[in-house]
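Lecture notes, structural biology module. Today: joint structure prediction for complexes of two components.
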Amino acid sequence: MHRDELRRRAAEHRLHLEGFAHHLLVCSSLGCAHNDALITALRRSVAERGMESRVLIRKTGCMGLCALGPLVAVQPEGWLYQHVRPEDADVVVASLGQQPSEQLLVPPDLPFFARQHKNVLALSGRIDPESLDDYLAAGGYAGLFAALDMRPAEVIRRIQESGLRGRGGAGYPTGLKWATVAKARGARKYIICNADEGDPGAFMDRSILESTPHAVLEGMIIAAYAVGACQGYIYVRAEYPLAVHRLKLAIRQAERHNLLGHAICGLNLDLAIQIRLGAGAFVCGEETALIESVEGRRGIPRPRPPYPAEKGLWGYPTLINNVETYANVGPIIDRGSRWFAALGTEASKGTKVFALTGKIVHTGLIEVPMGTTLREIVFDIGGGIPDGHGFKAVQTGGPSGGCIPAEHLDAPVSYESLSELGSIMGSGGMIVMDDTSSMIDIVKYFIEFCMDESCGKCIPCRVGTAQIHRLLTAFQERTATEADLAQLEMLCDLVKNTSLCGLGQSAPNPVLSTLRYFRQEYLDRISESRQPEDRP
Amino acid sequence: MPTSAPPHPSGENRPWRSVDQAMQRHDYRPDALIETLHAAQDAFGYLDGETLAYIAAKLRLPPAKVFGVATFYNHFSHKPKGEHTLVVCTGTACHVKGTDRVLAWVRDRYGLLPGETTADNRLSLVEVRCVGACALAPVILTDGDVIGKRGVEETTAVIEEWLHHAP
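The predicted structure, tokenised, for the full assembly:
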């Protein structure tokens, strides 16, 4: 199908949507589970009032505020209803065109929404993720259509100028990666979308895939055009069945409408995209281990160089980007690099999606411009700590990141500042801990995770994480000595500097960051272990 | 090594067709291995030696390699599951909200450790890394149903209730 036909289709669908006086958007992501009964109840209530021709009920992706789910948005009124149960259906439908129901209404000035800046999540919760027409009508694929009028080099230049950096954790400049793959010699080239969101406590990618799967496909098609790839893979966790289902559907729709396959949009561009299911191995988030897994083998990292950009899947140049990175591509091409570069800080451009969880009032999914302070995120957007407890630390970057204490709450979130604080941006998990949380407990949790997930190829990671775990257990059981503390620091340094891949290199980060900010907790455990007669 | 679909020792007629289809879809290339293991686990619930040998023969891969891959990934299970499956999420948010206490309760109440099944084959306990529903922590799945936002005590009550009423 040519671009004009798709644009016409979008205009027709917009007209169809405008024909309804009211829209009820029901969140149908994993965070608002069990809403089939709610949708049935809403349909029945609308039918009983004879309003079928005026009210459209649609399932949408994530609206972000999972803490108050199930959520129902009412458009064009702009209301958001919280904790909606099937028995509330009549109240919801009766309020249409009248006054909002006070008992269900989320206060419209809630800082959770007011302080966010949605770019990647702009359409999340506003369109039906299973409808290509919805995505097209909302301006989807405009970035692709614009890119196809440019030369590939021009597309890459725009991505470079935007300053976009990889959203999977390491923050490598995306444009530079694309340029390397474009320049690399190879009989064929591949692109891969890394949707193996392994960090426990992170669900940004799941949400993006469940809410706007076409946005990820759009980014991948643009990338394939830019670097000259004709085959793509999406490596997605098997633990995300809804995301897999919606991706499969989106791929089929894109194929049927000539956005994938041969001669895309009638042009000289071919791209097939296949899904590969992950099987529960954290190390497969590392790009070379992921490639091994796509090839059907154990997910064991390869030494780099050569980097995948030169020798990747089956030895051919391969571009690997994360879900959120691809989701940023369409808007950058559509709205321009300057628009994107105007957001964020000097070296960290654009916005970042975070999964805000743990001991915090408003758990959910947020998107803020880079440079927003941790305090704004935790206390304004997140609503602070529940049950009258005090803030202790926020953990970013999952098992590869660190714990940031209260005295650094005014630090801006950017790749540089988080790294200075001994943590990392990571993929965007943010777990808040209150004054009842033990830092040694959380650190032991992360090291246990890395120990279990170490693939075993290199000794520093395989043996080192096990030894660090043994030492932390001694601290937890209050049998540690000062010599253990010295050995712990030595081991962390060794594992960090001599491991083969990112898993081992970053595994000590949680320990190192807590030794830096919460050293007293370690020392207390040592002094407690000196008085065995006092122990219960 | 079996090269055609063998009947299962128990006499049950195994749905090999979906496994064959997965391999066919990938032209029996070796990189179809993980996809095929997924299809087999979906069909049979777990992967036993016979299934692995069959897949190895069909994909012309050494059985040791197939075994190596099948045991590398946490998602693949090598023992049959009980009538009901309780999945407990051990992601960070769930950990902070106390899933270790839920697991301790299951151990005390049913004598189960993660990966085990009760002697009467009624309940299997599975620990997963993170299901990505962190905003609902602590999260459990009772036969696939996501249950969250309920504190430790309420969660354990839900488990008892579910097992009591489950067929």
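Point to remember: Residues 62 and 491 of chain A are 42 Å apart (CA to CA).
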